[in-house]
Amino acid sequence: TAPGLQALLEDARSLAPATPGLPVHEQSVRLGHIELLFEKGVLFPLRTAEGTTAGLYFSGEGRYEYRSEDPEDRVVIAGNVARETRAPLCYNFAVRDRFKRAVVVFAAPVFESLWGAAGEREAGAGSRNSAGAGTAPTEEQKSDFGRIWKRIGQFYLAYDHLRARARLNGGARQYVYIELEGGRETAGYTYDRMDDFEERLSLYRKIQGIDVRISRLLSTQPIDGGRSAHPPALRLRDIRIDVETEDNRTATIRSDLTLEAIIPGVRVAHLDLLNNRDPDHFDWSSEKNRLTLRGVTDGTGRALPFSHRYNEVLVELPAPLERGATQQLRFDTSGEVLTDRRGRHDENYFELLFDPWYPRTPQVGSAGFTSRLKVRTRAPFRPIASGRLLSEHEERGIFEVETESPASVQGPVVLAGKYRTSEAAAGAVAIRSDAYAEELQETQEKIPKLAGRFLEFYESLLGPYPFGKLDIVEIPESLMELGDPFHCVGVAWGQLGVAPAGLVLMSSDAYNPYQLRARLEAYRGFMNTHGDPRSSTGGGRRDWSVSRGVNARLAHEIAHQWFPHQAWPATRRDAWLAESLAEYLSGLAMSAMQTDPRDVEGFAQQFAGWQFEARGCANVGSLETAMMLTGESAGRDSACLVYDRGPLVLHMLRTL
């Protein structure tokens, strides 16, 4: 009988260098697009308590070569390397360096020519080596391994979870991480044939005093067609979430999921679920603002084994699922997770936005899933939830709202705060502005009417709006704290705009012209100091974009209700489509507004702005590489590609 989840995890967590070590001389191995040459040194298999080899530690002299073959990656790899290091590592689309120490961790056996005979898997047989007598690790080697292993832990390498998934779910799934130290730069190589189906080469940056290591991506190449060619093990079909709080600080969250097996023989479910919302640390094991998973049960109420670490959860299913079979799971969680975006408890509001505050599959897509959400809060906090409104009422100081989404692609979100509401209608769609009492009444009343006109325009182009209601919600954080400073948009994959289904989030400056003016002046000062050196004002495109004001920002975010919420980009390289389409559509919507041209920037002005600003990223890469750029200028260059070149390309296609 194969071991269960808990047994596999406990065994994996006992990983340590085995003795004696294995002498190696002029031996090379290859994986994906990386080749390692171990010139001279000693290799220590990393073994578990049960004798399973799950990794390697090398000390000696060696060198590596990583070669880029993907056409899009070749566009950016040399520039990425040049921005991240002054060391001459890249030549002719290849990165080369030496190393003195290497740590290799794998989910399934690999590089067996180094540590054991072909076909050897278990029981520590790799310790027998015909190359000669082994050696015990020196104190220096022990210290070096401990230091590197601790550092790898700051990279959230879920080696125990990955190994259990590869073993229990079967198939040719593999995950290999290699860290190479002692050359001109410390490099990390990832071969992910588990989730993203891509290989990555990175350098690292450690910020003093912060318990996380920043990955500086140099290259990414798809494996066997990439993620779009390889379905995940499970797909989310339906989710029902019940959120309740007595103090607007601590929540109990019950999540009922229906999952469908996409591949045969699935024994373990892998889902994202945060461990905490600690505002001061990145460590998943922190106890501050912790979300505790109290139990997982199946559709019959039977308790199931699980592991909740690394902001994810593994659940051992009652029986292997065949392709197309479904499984019901209930998750009971609780904790002080009702915070603002920065993890702080706020006396005016809280949000449950893009963090995995409920269990969800790591991969989302336009196939979509149905969802229902019920939220209960204590007055004076009134809840606002994504999706179509089913019911809303207050009784004895308790607010309750219930919504549903017929075909979500991103997932439900919740906000609650001391809101007052102004409402308008656009056909059958109820449009509400939810803002704080101190904001200007005139501004709040204008926003629903303006949003209604944008909505009607988009429906005439794109088809019916599917959610029945649209809430434009004030949030106190500045745009810069949320992501992109001028569009209220984070271009990171998975956060394609601060516009969840049925919601548009606008920072407080959008509701108060005095705050907007102050924010603009502060941002101009920041960009004049730290902005684009190619611009005469320092700020360039971002300074111009902030000055466009609330209308264009609102038009952009409403366009996200179609892109990506009804058409999700297939891969990371297609992510530009959601933002560029929203930006282009906002230009068309602004042009269609029949108001005083002194108050509205029309399409001609925006088109001219796109043309002018797109010159700044003429040579940084293609639209497909916008999410592949790295370095200090990556944010600026990505924004230029997505928000300037992208709309121009779409306009070209539309007018052909």
Key descriptive features of the protein:
alpha+beta; 27 strands; 13 helices; 34% strand; 656 residues
Characterise the protein shown here.
- The protein has 656 residues and is α+β, with helices and mostly antiparallel strands.
- The protein has helices spanning 5-12, 71-84, 112-115, 139-153, 159-169, 441-462, 479-482, 513-530, 541-546, 550-559, 576-592, 603-614, 634-655, and strands at residues 16-17, 22-31, 34-47, 53-67, 90-91, 94-106, 174-181, 187-193, 198-206, 213-222, 234-245, 251-261, 266-272, 291-298, 306-309, 312-321, 326-335, 349-352, 369-378, 382-385, 388-395, 398-408, 414-417, 419-426, 429-436, 469-475, 503-507.
- Strands 1, 2, 3, 4, 5, 6, 7, 8, 9 and 10 form a 10-stranded antiparallel beta sheet that branches. Strands 14-17-12-11-19-22-21 form a 7-stranded mixed beta sheet, with no helix packed on it. A 4-stranded mixed beta sheet has the order 24-25-26-27, with helices on one face.
- Strand 11 and strand 12 form a beta hairpin.
- Mean pLDDT is 84; it is low at 118-133, 478-497 and 526-547.
